[in-house]
Amino acid sequence: MERTFIAIKPDGVQRGLVGEIIRRLETKGFTLVALKLLHPSRELAEQHYAVHKERPFFSGLVDFITSGPVVAMVWQGEGVVAASRLTIGATNPLVSPPGTIRGDLGINIGRNLIHGSDAVETAQSEIALWFKEEELVSWSPTVSPWLSE
Ligand code: DAT
Ligand code: MG
């Protein structure tokens, strides 16, 4: 079953939006298989955003992600990687459509509340970076037959 890595960034935690953000993914029908609150190290943040290391916003992005606790999660479900990106919305909250997490809850690209893996392979490496294998819980919700045929 497909899995993705989702993180609520320090702005989402500080603004008290953890429940609201989890609610949106949960009510969509995705399954939570791992969750932890942690204050990421600079090393972890730099590895996570390594693809952006030459970009002008990189050091500010790492400062921001390491500025407070983050809620790191793994979600599972049919097409969860692409579908959760749609639920999250565009990178810039100002142009992210209403109905999306970033569109409804944010206004600034540097404070866009949430990270979601952009492809299945990225998801696998991000899950391995943030979680140990034993932190992932394999389970099947009893409502599964009512979500997928
Ligand atoms: P996404 O998080 O939508 O996958 P991304 O991978 O292009 O976006 O960029 C990672 C994060 O970097 C993004 O969530 C916010 C920040 N970022 C991207 N572009 C930026 C910019 N032009 N100015 C400031 N921060 C930016
Ligand atoms: Mg990205």
UniProtKB/TrEMBL annotation:
Names of required cofactors: Mg(2+)
Cell location: Cytoplasm
Family matches, as SMART domains: NDK
One of the GO biological process terms: GTP biosynthetic process
Primary location group: cytoplasm
Binding site for ATP: K9, F57, R85, T91, R102, N112
Domain Nucleoside diphosphate kinase-like, first and last residues per copy: 1-138
GO cellular component terms, A-Z: cytoplasm
Annotated InterPro entries: NDK-like_dom, NDK-like_dom_sf, Nucleoside_diP_kinase, Nucleoside_diP_kinase_AS
Family the UniProt entry places it in: Belongs to the NDK family.
Protein name as annotated: Nucleoside diphosphate kinase
Native organism: Chamaesiphon minutus (strain ATCC 27169 / PCC 6605)
